[in-house]
Amino acid sequence: MVITGPTGSGKTDFALKIAGKINDSVIVSADSRQIYKYIQVATCSPKEADQKKIKHYFINELNPDESFNAGEYGKQARILIQELFEENKFPIVTGGSGLYLKSLIDGFFENDASDENIRISLYEKLKLKGIEFLYNELKEIDKISASRLIPQDFRRVIRALEVYYVSGVKISDYQKEKIDINFIPVQYGLLLERQYLYERINSRVEYMLNDGLIQEIKILKEKGFDKMNLNSLDSVGVKEVFKYLNGEYDLLEMKEMIKQNTRRYAKRQMTWFRKDKRIKWLEVNENTDFEELAKNTIDDFKKT
Q: Are residues 296 and 238 in the same domain?
């Protein structure tokens, strides 16, 4: 079973409710940031008490300067899920990182085409000529990949260019490769009316700040993890607090930027998820009884 949806939709709590109703269930995170240590508040990771009740995987495992990507997640998560099935465990995959879910379910390019010198030269070109230049370069090389990205997503634009220049193969061609998996995922997505979702996001940001977000990032800096080129730290809620601590934002500006950037991220997530017609959408509003919704979802799953 897969539980997905945009940030702030309540999928973490919903997955826990479902896990509490199914014997021998575990949760496999599909969140590209919750796997990192020291940013639990910023990523709204499951609380320690919840992790003690239900076993979680891919949570709080890596240091912020350790690299991890969708391709690696797909490989590791497929192995893990197979092992869980052999142990008669019921895995509930939960997260909103669309690329991670795609890697798990459909396979992501597995070729390790990388070259540090080429990557450095591409970043130098980024500084000199800007992201629009690189994006147009990608459009000439690989129109399919370019159509899946926006210019602002410069890391993926550069990665696509790097793969092509190293291997001579377009990254979209790698992504056409299918991975054989021995399980059939059933995907459920939480669907909230936009205004209600944005209200939840705004409330969640307030909660994060009250829960110690600023102190968490201060500690992160003290540990030496303050380089904003780290992929793990290029996250909503982290980068804005860094700017606040560096004097670029005042407290109110920081708070509003976190809310705004989270809303934008949720919108991008929904654009991604709507393309996947396999997702069964569960409508959620302020009157939703999540206990009942969890029970109905389990009943529906049993029919598949």
A: yes
Torsion, Cα 117 157 245 266, to 10 degrees, reads: -150
Q: How far apart are CA 34 and CA 29, in angstroms?
A: 8
Predicted confidence (pLDDT) per residue in 209-229, tens digit: 999 999 999 999 888 887 666
Is 268 within 8 Å of 6 (Cβ atoms)?
no
| 3 state DSSP class of 265 | helix
Pairing status of strand 187-192 against strand 2-4: parallel
Spatial separation of the C-alpha atoms in residues 23 and 90, rounded to whole Å:
8
For residue 141, what is the domain's CATH number?
Answer: 1.10.20.140
Cβ–Cβ under 8 Å, residues 138 and 146: yes
Per-residue pLDDT tens digits for 138-169: 999 899 989 988 888 888 899 889 888 876 77
Q: What is the span of the domain harbouring residue 269?
A: 2-109+179-303
Are 265 and 295 part of one and the same domain? yes
Return d(Cα 229, Cα 219) in angstroms, integer: 18
